What does this fold into?
Amino acid sequence: MKNKIVLLFLVFQSFIWAQTDMFSDVELKSIGPTIMSGRIVDLAVNPENPTEFYAAYASGGLWYTKNNGMSFEPVMDEALTQNCGSVTVDWKTGTIWVGTGEVNSSRSSYAGIGVLKSTDKGKTWTNIGLQDSHHISRIWVNPKNNNEIVVAALGHLYTSNDERGVFKTIDGGKTWKKALFINKDTGIIDLSVAPNNSNIMYAAAWERERKAWNFKGNGESSGIYKSEDAGSTWKLISTKESGFPNNVGVGRIGLAAFNENVIYAVLDNQNNRPQSTISDKSKLPMPEMFSAPGEVFIQKSNKEINAYLKKHGLREKYRAQTIKNWVEKGEMQPSEVKKVLQDANKALFETEVIGCEIYKSIDGGKSWKRTHDDFIDDMYYSYGYYFGIISVDPSNENRIYMGGVPLLFSEDGGKTIVSINKDNVHADHHVTWVNPKNPNHIINGNDGGINISYDNGEHWIKCNNNAVGQFYAVNIDYNNSYNVYGGLQDNGVWVGNNNYYPSTSWHQDGKYPYESLMGGDGMQIQIDNRNPDIVFTGYQFGNYYRIDRSKNKMDFISPKAKKDEKPLRFNWQTPILLSSHNQDILYMGSNFLHRSMNQGETWEKISPDLTKGAVEGNVAFGTITSFSESKFQFGFFYVGSDDGLIHVSKDGGATWQKTSNNLPQNLWVSRVKASAFKKERVYVTLNGYRNDDFKSYVYVSDDYGITWQDISVNLPQSPVNVILEDTENENLLFVGTDNGLFVSLNKGKSWEDFSSEMPNVAVHDLVIQPKAKELIVGTHGRSLYKVGIDELQKLTSDILNKSLFVYEVPSIKKSERWGNSWSQWGKPYEPKTEIWFYSNSNEEVEMIIENEKGIVVFSKKITAKKGLNLVNYDYTLSDDVIAKWKKKDKKAVFEKARNGKQYVLPTKYSIHIKKGNETVFTNLEVVENKKA
It folds into this structure.
């Protein structure tokens, strides 16, 4: 693996942390899945050859195709981040600019590190500035002078800051001028340049504020600005007199300039609809629905109920099937459900916002008119902040495309609108490119990757070849050939065998190696270790199910407040756990810790509220985020919350003590983990991402949390999501951060990079399959990775204190397949054995392999590095070695394989590694493969 230099930010004062190569030979292997793809945020298409384009993923990096999406290659893996907001390409020079940091402002929109530039098609990247902007929406580069660049920066997601607005450079990024600044809470979400006059630019300002407990996506500072001097100066054009809304209800705006005079704007209008326009159709169904008897209510379609919940911002917290389960089990009557929903959204039956609107100006923004008479319902629902994209056909000003939950199209300038979302097109659309030479050819980027159409959306090709899934959680079962389970952002819960490798062979039989277990935003998974067909999993905000895969049966199991109690508060990623002491016992966290003795059939609270209490807002907060039960004692718990509290109970929840007073306060407890090696030991990671705090917080306690020790000593500064203790070596720890994977051999006294063959991507979850001795890595942007950790587990202090150590090598059977293939057209099978050794220094060593007669069959000088080193031995023999062998053994017979190579004979060999005056050795045996 290449030497890495990871640049991260501590309160965005940049510094460099040089990683060592200690484990660069321990390569992580991608195990998919690819079929669900991931969230696209931008496209850059070659207008002269549209089969060539770049696709930017929200947290999966930049990918390149030159065959119309049949295959892609990552071109940003050497960059210091995989978090993208925008991409621009000069196709004449091949230069690429990436604005880092996603701008969709969701809870998983990661910050970036400024503007990156590559002049060698992504082989190397240079940071050219605006590091504190965090989220960059657009980059315009003058095609006649690449040193002239205009950047639209949205700014911090969770806090106020100055580095937001429009920035311009005329020296390629050496210096920047802040050309437009509105205030510390308002940035620029879109930038559109007139194709026929690059002096004319339009910028969309967006005032928004996200907190862990609330999101406000509109404000008086939102509006449209215009520049007539290529971005040097700007003027507000969405004035009160212009016809474009100008008030506190103005949300996210998307822009598309057809020329210097004609421009479209799509608006998330958060102003309330006039009461006179609220139709019976839009407001009455919910009261009528919830006035029906229970047996009638449960016959309502999920689609009907979910549509209304989604429109009013309740689908994150509630789903139709969840509500039906309450009614069917007799826990609530429909009228009581109505009250719960009203408590969750007091305006549910009183107000409705205007939502998506399209405006057009034909005089360069002096005046604006709404293009449509009716409301555009079922477009944004309650989260218009997530979209705001409009595109115009470069050859016809009346043909426009709008992205929201569906993808919409109008051929009359927005007067009438149709959906071109089809069966194989994922919802939630973020970019649409229209071919200037063939308007029926469009490329669309959405939450499920890339779709291409050549008939204006009648039919679509889906390009889902890349492992770019955004995993929240991962787990394994204990089958001999074990399965991997994972929950993904917007793509549900999936399961597949760990031996997955990228291949399109599944197109032949129609069965993809991974199987979907459920939809929604996939969350945590628990598997009954006595019967892997029994799976517990769910989607956001505590909607969990018990699945019997053998019977294709799914039962809703989440605990629920009693009728006279306040609703439970569930985290977006609600934690669950099957007890290691008894697999019938299931735990689940809301703001309380719940226990079920019968796998979710019934529940009991075993704690008081373990948070600081509810916080007013539109996102659940004051929730349990992580908990752990000690393997030493049933009912011995640690519990962490999103508001920074940690509690411990040693008596099954009868009593609780707070143990977080001596830790940094008000940080998200991303993981709390009881040690499997010492009863008194517990590990904790805290996460400041939701405060724009990018420090690493990792702690250990050896006295039940009474005192804590900081073990983040040399970790690069990046929010920490997970810590995992090894299953065999108590000194071996793994940590996943928003920027990679790290390992410690000494219980956190020092850390090393552990991401060979994996880019700097967010790691959300880790799990070890103990029998296979493999670590599964769940990333939020590059799907899943697998890596063998057998050699790491054996790196005890005894071995680390040695100068040189070689690991045992398993025996191998000689096979007729060696060097041969079943067909002259197939590739021959070539054997390989991994020889691992440890060196305590960077120094040249020599490896020699001898047979029993003392003949050297292999020798190689190696520049060993400090750490683990790997040599792949292929068992081939040179003609000189064969001649020496025959001289000593007249009966030895060697035959060339079909690949022209000759291989060693079955016998015992010894492996010697020399460093200076020191030699270590181990045995290698090639066994004869006797036929029955």
About this structure: Residues 1-19, 280-285 have pLDDT under 50 and may be disordered. The CA atoms of residues 528 and 534 lie 6 Å apart.
